[in-house]
Write a structure and sequence with these properties.
It is a single chain. The chain is of the alpha/beta class. The chain has a single domain, classed as Molybdenum Cofactor Biosythetic Enzyme, Chain A (3-Layer(aba) Sandwich), CATH 3.40.980.10. The chain has seven helices and eight strands; from the N terminus they run βααβαβαβαββαββα. The strands form two sheets. Strands 2-1-3-6-5-4 form a six-stranded mixed beta sheet, with helices on both faces. A hairpin with a 2-residue loop joins β5 and β6. It starts with 18 loop residues before the first strand and ends in a 27-residue tail after the last helix. The structure holds adenosine-5'-triphosphate (ATP) and ligand MTE. Adenosine-5'-triphosphate binds next to α1. This is Molybdopterin adenylyltransferase. Its EC number is 2.7.7.75. Catalyzes the adenylation of molybdopterin as part of the biosynthesis of the molybdenum-cofactor. It catalyses: molybdopterin + ATP + H(+) = adenylyl-molybdopterin + diphosphate.
Length: 209
């Protein structure tokens, strides 16, 4: 049974729930300034395009250090984030520890996300099989690992469309709003042109006027 007990009206008067979202870029080189971080802008851009909800972003740029990543995730959940998206550090290299850091703070695992993310990735690159990305729930927050390639962020969230814009492989974000409903989070509303969220009929709320 979906529990939408967070029915607070939006601060912007739009009728959409305001949401706080953690965005975490995990990269040794970007955090040292060797190259400019593209992870946080890509996450911010995609979420802003995809959601009607007013978003307060909580950005973090951190090196591939397991303890630092876990600490950031714990802090973001405690700060009231309903969703945290990480990018980077999911591969098999010895410095890649984002999945371990995420599992260390998990209350529950959500294996379906990892399964689907690798299926999507394989439509773009054969090396998607190397990504160990996971998704977990901590308290009322969903935490999802995305790969580090900046282009992989939209690919994974949005999926793949044919030349006419019809979905070929559903992106994982389609399942995120209903997941948040079920764990007591805010009601996310997506822009269908970017990502059509799926909810069972009984869980769909009337559109704000
Ligand atoms: N935050 C980022 N900003 C820009 N490009 C990135 C970022 N993170 C990763 N990339 C690019 O994607 C590639 C694969 O990402 P991965 O997370 O495996 O990084 P990496 O090779 O471990 O290096 P680093 O942790 O120093 O970014 C990188 O080699 C880099 O070209
Ligand atoms: N959609 C998508 N998934 C992808 C990729 C990509 O380009 N697009 N790159 C893959 C590669 S090359 C690797 S090594 C793994 C792990 O990447 P990470 O260490 O940057 O997280 O993600 C994979 N998943």
């Amino acid at each position: 049974m979906a529990s939408n007990d967070n029915d607070a009206s939006a601060a912007d008067g739009s009728g959409h729930d305001p949401v706080r979202i953690g965005i975490v870029s995990v990269s040794d080189r970007a955090s040292r300034g060797v190259y400019a971080d593209q992870g946080l802008p890509a996450l911010r851009d995609w979420l802003t395009r995809a959601l009607h909800n007013p978003i307060a972003f909580e950005p973090r740029l951190i090196p591939d250090e397991q303890a630092d990543i876990s600490a950031a995730l714990i802090e973001l959940v405690a700060a009231g984030c309903c969703l945290v998206l990480t990018t980077g550090g999911t591969g098999p290299a010895l410095r890649d520890v984002t999945p371990e850091a995420t599992l260390a703070v998990a209350h529950r695992q959500m294996p379906g996300f990892g399964e689907q993310m690798r299926q999507i990735g394989l439509r773009f690159v054969p090396t998607a099989i190397l990504s160990r990305q996971v998704a977990v729930v901590r308290d009322r927050c969903l935490i999802i690992n995305l790969p580090g390639q900046p282009k992989a962020i939209a690919e994974t969230l949005e999926g793949l469309r044919d030349a006419d814009g019809r979905p070929l492989v559903p992106g994982i974000f389609a399942a995120v709003p209903y997941c948040l409903d079920l764990i007591g989070g805010p009601y996310l509303e997506t822009r269908d042109a970017v990502c059509k969220a799926f909810r069972p009929k009984g869980a769909v709320r009337a559109t704000p006027a």
